[in-house]
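FAQ: What does a ligand-bound record look like?

Like this one, built around pyridoxal-5'-phosphate:
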Amino acid sequence: METTDMKTRLKSLPSVDEMLKGPDGRNWLSLYPRRFVLKGIREHIESLRSAIRKGGSPETDPASISRGIECLIQGYVAPSLRAAINATGVVLHTNLGRAPLSEAALKGVVEISKGYSNLEYNLEEGKRGKRYAHLRELIKEITGAPDATVVNNNAAAVLLALSSLAKGKEVIVSRGELVEIGGSFRVPDVMAQSGAVLREVGTTNKTHLRDYERAICDETALILKVHQSNYRITGFTSDVSVEELVALGGKNSIPVMFDLGSGCLFDLRTRGVGSEPVVREVVQTGVDLVTFSGDKLLGGPQAGIAAGKPQVIEKMNQNPLARALRIDKMTLAALQATFFAYADEEKAQTEIPTLRMLLESPESIRERAGRLASGIRAKEGIFIEVVEDFSEAGGGSLPGVSLRTFCVSVRSKNLLSPNRMEEKLRTGSPPVIARIKEDALVLDARTIADDEVQTVAERLNGILQ
Ligand SMILES: *Cc1c(COP(=O)(O)O)cnc(C)c1O
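The answer part, i.e. the structure of the complex:
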């Protein structure tokens, strides 16, 4: 029941029309689209009404009402997808957009998408051309594969390959490789969607060549090897090398496919990082098909690259699914520029942000961490230090590889808990995503770009006020 007091309070609320015609309303209309101004006014007044009816006493003075409305309007007009600063040290952070693009890739995207292009037009012959022709020769050159095609992401490449090569037939996979990557890509599920039948062999920790051999039958259409990507089985283990599988496939006229996941084009081993083989080496084993992501170690846009024998690539391109999974011109432009950088390894490691971050020396990272630390204003009760730590590649790439790094550690004595600091950095603008370690907020300088150092320092100074 509404008491007299409630009635008075409800009556004192301004109407939507009054708000709209008042000075604040007119100001908002000059700044924001009318629909969002109306929505903000309606929703805020409605929420005050319902709070009063429930017996609450929200602030209803004109200034508070205006502040509440403006806050809502600003929420509606701010784009939900926005740039953030990655201070986690995880280079290929799946939740933060994986690989940042190189300058050349960005330039390509702008150039190709702001106007028309020869996306599917053969300029020499003046007639229809092929979308993938632009990338095919470049991928062949860089990977050494006899043929190649590209789809929307690596999950799509695997789906398309299984559907094209093994629909209604059996695919042999080791039990130790039935992985789940990032929650939504599970090898058995993708297999089911493709219409292929999974034939599991071996056990979780050990699979032998004879396990594959015994599973081969008239129904076998493909032998699939999957990179374990985001985990490592250690201890009493064994798996079958791609070379052995290629030999087995050859003997039985069964194609062999290797889902590499990350697909490394730059030999990180030469720089002491991990033990990932480069795609070219895997191709040289004679495997019929390899698939890998465009936005993991490659450092390009989201895409799935399939490189292999011409008859296999041909089947994939002919599959009606290929049209549904095809890449857009922006991706094509970015991927072309990214692959092109690999024509010169020196260039690749300086131009591609992912490689640059993975290969940066700890001393150089320490120097950047030092600059960040000295940009933070000294304050009673706040402890700032540069500390040594480890960062990781992320994105299911280079599992188990720890990269020595330097971080800025921020501790506050009784002023702000690390959780509170983390939250403030994350929800402010621009958002800065950091980690918490023990009682400190930790910002890893590996993934903070040079031109972001000052911004991060300013954000920290803001919250430590
Ligand atoms: C990451 C990964 C995928 C999925 O690739 P996306 O490009 O994210 O679709 C598939 N297989 C393996 C082994 C992977 O590591």
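Follow-up question: can I read anything off the structure? Yes, for example: The two ends are 46 Å apart (CA to CA).
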